[in-house]
Amino acid sequence: MSILTTPKRRREAASGGNSLHVGPRPAIMSRLAAMTIMIVATITFLTPIWWLFVASTKNRSDLTSTNGLWFAEWNFGTNVSALLDYRGGIFLQWLGNSAIYTVGGALIGTLLAAMCGYALAKYQFRGREVLFNVVLGGVLVPLTALALPLFLMFSMVNLTNTFWSVFLPSLVSPFGVYLSRIFAAASVPDEVLEAARLDGSNEVRTFFTVSVRLMFPALVTIFLFQFVAIWNNFFLPLIMLRDESIMPVTLGLYNWNSQVSQIPELRGYVLIGALLSVIPLILMFSLLQRFWKNGLGSGAIK
Amino acid sequence: MSSSIPMNRTRKRQGFLAVFILPFGLLFTLFYILPILYAMWQSTRVVERDGTFGAAREVFGGLTQYQNVFSNTEFWESIGRVLMFGAVQVPVMLGLALLLALLLDSPLVKGRRFFRLAYFAPYAVPGVIAAIMWGFLFSPNLSPFDWVMTNVDFMSPTLVLWAIAIVVTWVYTGYNMIIIYSSLLAIPQDIFEAARLDGAGQVRIAWSIKIPLVVPSLVLTTIFSIIGTLQLLTEPQVFKTFSTAVNSTYTPNLAVYAASSIPDYSLAAAMSVVLAVATFILSFSVLKFTQRKAD
């Protein structure tokens, strides 16, 4: 039921060099119309982020009294240091927590998913199809539907409001298994495994020395998917965590935002905090662009 | 899979499989399968008291909680609300994503790398932060578009659902566009040559060749969007602080959250199960419906 749609890099390179135009050159009018739509869309998508950046450079009175899309007095540094000082630097703690939940969870989760998907793709064993179908069913189970039962289970063993109650469930990615099965089937040839076997390498060592390298671009895609899934999973920390010191930055900022009406200065902190927590992600996505732009389409069902 | 290696030799050769499968399998069982079973079990429990002030006991109640869910008008109102939301927002978002992907794939546009990143950037913004940001953008005294916001109250009961739709569309259009775009890139080049030599324009090529070929990725994005819509939680939860129109049972998941904070875990669990089943049925029917059309 599933196929791998291998995006052809060749084609993209070709279209960049304009060798694609075989027929008559497109009329100038349609070129203009297309570019207009693209630019209007760009402005729509980027304006809120631009506004957030501008807002985080302003002091409290300029925030409401000056034009939101352009700078007033430059207070970016003051705002950042005020945020970092606020309540003993709890914001930095949240950023650090988020980094551990997301990077740590996605790294370990990707490895686990890759091993399982790899085994499903490269070996025959009893129960393989059953296992795969159960995992595939897991893809359709939304994370939010699991949050409440997870909370009840963790509370039975008195582990709610702990780091592990959010971290451990984040390690599981059925979609990652599904993707890595497709990728392993496509990118790890049986001949390579056979050759490693003849060299006396055992299967587990072959996986870590040879197969992981062949699957690397795919693993980055799985990592990104899971990273975003953990980062966006708001219900689980919301329902699990009460202790501020183990919260991810999203939950921390959410709590601040709910208190803005009582503590007005929090609004500025929420704005600058939002900006600071978004920047690392945008940087990461632009650095890893060559992976996700091809990889995201690979899960398409036929 | 035709390319797998037969492993029918000794048991010893199979031992390594445990190393590959068990770590994931164990966590999957603990944190996916067990919670689902637990939710089902919890949904059959009811609280019983000995007299008015007696100690509360949990006992088996059969399908009592499901009767409670089905007679809970607020819950069904919330389902109706997200269905209405999805009926408008999903086609608009996916139409937009398809249009942008087709333009990005056409020879009419220059600067692909830049546009691709610009459209994808909102996806890097976590839902909570996107909702907080838009909450400020919709507020009359903070928004740079204050001339719009003072005339149109996006936080009013009639408009707040569509304000949430704007946030969701803003975050996810680029993500869906990338999925559609990468399946456009996978179309073999030679298909277009003939069309172009026949004098077909870009619009014609897009309509008659490209769109039919990316249907699988449209199905995938539709299913993901339906799941996302029925599970809507983050954005309305944040908007509760901006608008009084968003109550604690505004979406099905908020209703689950509200029931669990009473705390009425059995009712919340029954709601979760109903919601998960509804999600499954809906995404499965989309899959079946589109497959039948393709045959």
Any overview of this molecule?
The complex is a heterodimer of chains A (302) and B (295). Chain A is built from 16 helices and no strands. Chain A is an all-alpha fold and 302 residues long. Chain A has a single domain, classed as Orthogonal Bundle (MetI-like fold), CATH 1.10.3720. Chain A is globular and about 70 Å long. Chain B is 69% helix and 3% strand. In chain B, α1 packs across α13, α3 runs parallel beside α7 and α5 crosses α7. Chain B is mainly α and 295 residues long. In chain B, a hairpin with a 6-residue loop joins β1 and β2. At the A-B interface, α1, α2, α5, α6 and α7 of A face α1, α3, α4, α5 and α7 of B.
In brief:
Chain A is mostly helical and 302 residues long. Chain A contains 16 helices and no strands.
Walk across the major sheet of chain B and give the strand order: 1-2
Sheet bearing the most strands of chain B, described?
A: 2 strands, antiparallel
Number of domains of chain A: 1
Return Rg of chain A in Å.
Answer: 24 Å
Q: Which radius of gyration of chain B do the C-alpha atoms yield?
A: 25 Å
Element order of chain A: H for helix, E for strand: HHHHHHHHHHHHHHHH
CATH topology annotation of the domain at 79-245 in chain B? MetI-like fold
Give the CA-based shape of chain B.
globular
Number of continuous helical runs of chain A: 16
Structural class of chain B: mainly alpha
Tell me the CATH superfamily of chain A: MetI-like
- How far the N terminus sits from the C terminus of chain A, by CA atoms, comes to 6 Å
Give the tally of β-strands of chain B.
2
Structural class of chain A: mainly alpha
Percent of residues in beta strands of chain A: under 5%
Count interface residues per chain for the largest interface. Answer: A-B, 116 and 116 residues
Instruction: Tell me which CATH architecture of chain A applies here.
Output: Orthogonal Bundle
